[in-house]
Design a protein that fits this description.
This protein is an alpha/beta fold and about 325 residues long. Helices cover about 35% and strands about 25% of the residues. Bound molecules: N,N,N-trimethyl-histidine.
Length: about 325
C-alpha cells in the first residue's frame, strides 16, 4: 500500500551532448551526408518510435512479440538456469515482459541512450515484477560496452530484439556482435531479433506508413538539431524518403532538401542543393543463413532459430 518505491539502480554514463554537436557537424561535411540513427532517440523520438511500432504497416514489432510469446518456455529451457538478462537499447522494455515470467532472471539490466525514457520504463518493470532486481544504465551501446554496474555472478543472456542490429552495416555488426560475445562471458547466450529479406513492397510500406509516423520520426532529427544545437534550419524544407535498396539488402532512410538552401549550425554553414540528401538510417535485412554466418564470424554458435509462418522476422538463440 501507499507510495510505490523506486527499486531500480540507475547508472548514468552521460552519453551524448558533447558527441551530438561534433557528430552532426562531421556527418554533414561528409559525402554522402549522414547522421547516425542513434540521434533519433530523444524523448520525442522514443515516443515516435513506439508509435511506429503500432502502425498497421510496421510488422516487425508485432511479429517478434508473437515469436517471443510462443517460444518463451523453450527459450527458458535453453538457458536452463537463472540468468542476468541484459538488454542493449531497451526502449520501452515492452518485449522483455514476454520473457520475465518464464525466465525468472536474477536481475534485468536495461540500457538505453534515452535517459528519461529508460528511467520510466525501468521503474515500470520494477513495479510490475517486484521480485526482480533492475539495474538501468544510460549508455550509448554503439560505444564499447564494459558494464561496470553489472553484477558479475550468473550466466548472462543478452537480449537484443527489434532488429536493432540492422542499423549497423554488416562489418560494424560483426564488430558489435564480437563485443556482445565478450560481454556475454564464458557461459553466455544471445537472443536476438533479426528482420528478414522479403518482398520489397512489404519493406517499403513498413518505412512509409500511411499515417506519416515514420516521416515524423525521421524529421524529428532536424527539430532536435534545431533546438539542441541552436541551428538555423527549417525542418519543413526537408522531406522523408525511405526505400528498400535491394543490392545492399537494406532499407535506407533519408532527409531530402526540397530546395537549395543553407543551414547554419554554430559558426558552420552547409549548402544543400535541391534534392540533396542526408542519409539518416540503414536497416539491413538478413536471411537466416546470412545472419547465422555473421554471428558465427563473431564467435557465436547457433542453437535455435524461430521464424513466423510468413518468414517476415527471425528470432535467433546463440551460445558463446
Ligand atoms: C529500431 C532500427 C530496428 O530499422 O526498423 C523503424 C528503426 N526506423 N522505422 C528499424 C526504424 C524507421 C528500426 N530499428
Amino acid at each position: 500500500s501507499g507510495i510505490p518505491q523506486t527499486r531500480i539502480r540507475f547508472y548514468d554514463e552521460h552519453p551524448l551532448m558533447a558527441d551530438f554537436f561534433g557528430e552532426v557537424l562531421s556527418g554533414l561535411q561528409q559525402r554522402p551526408r549522414c547522421i547516425s540513427p542513434k540521434f533519433f532517440y530523444d524523448e520525442r523520438g522514443s515516443e515516435l518510435f513506439d508509435a511506429i511500432c503500432r502502425t498497421e504497416e510496421y510488422y516487425p514489432t508485432r511479429t517478434e512479440q508473437q515469436l517471443l510469446q510462443t517460444h518463451a518456455a523453450e527459450i527458458a529451457e535453453l538457458i536452463g538456469e537463472q540468468c542476468l538478462l541484459i538488454e542493449p537499447g531497451s526502449g520501452n522494455s515492452d518485449k522483455v515482459r514476454l520473457l520475465l515470467d518464464q525466465l525468472q532472471p536474477a536481475a534485468y539490466l536495461p540500457m538505453d541512450i534515452s535517459r528519461d525514457f529508460l528511467f520510466q520504463a525501468a521503474e515500470q518493470v520494477a513495479n510490475d515484477y517486484p521480485w526482480l532486481d533492475v539495474y538501468a544504465a544510460c549508455v550509448d551501446f554503439t560505444a564499447p560496452l564494459n558494464l561496470p554496474w553489472c553484477p558479475d555472478d550468473g550466466r548472462r543472456l543478452i537480449f537484443f530484439p527489434g532488429s536493432s542490429i540492422g542499423n549497423f552495416d554488416p562489418g560494424q555488426a560483426e564488430v558489435f556482435l564480437r563485443n556482445l560475445h565478450n560481454v556475454a562471458g564464458d557461459q553466455g547466450s544471445l537472443l536476438i531479433g533479426v528482420d528478414m529479406k522479403k518482398d520489397p513492397a512489404i519493406l517499403n510500406a513498413a518505412y512509409n506508413d500511411s499515417e506519416g509516423v515514420t516521416a515524423a520520426f525521421n524529421l524529428n532529427l532536424l527539430h532536435r538539431i534545431q533546438r539542441e544545437l541552436n541551428a538555423e534550419l527549417d525542418p519543413a524544407l526537408f522531406r522523408h524518403h525511405a526505400f528498400y535498396n535491394e543490392d545492399q539488402g537494406r532499407v535506407e532512410m533519408h532527409l531530402i532538401s526540397q530546395r537549395a538552401q543553407t543551414l547554419k549550425i554554430g559558426d558552420q554553414q552547409f549548402h544543400f542543393d535541391k534534392d540533396e540528401s542526408i542519409h539518416t538510417e540503414s536497416s539491413y535485412k538478413y536471411t537466416v543463413e546470412e545472419f547465422t554466418d555473421l554471428a558465427g564470424r563473431a564467435g557465436f554458435t547457433s542453437r535455435q532459430v524461430w521464424t513466423d509462418p510468413d518468414q517476415l522476422f527471425s528470432l535467433h538463440y546463440f551460445d558463446v
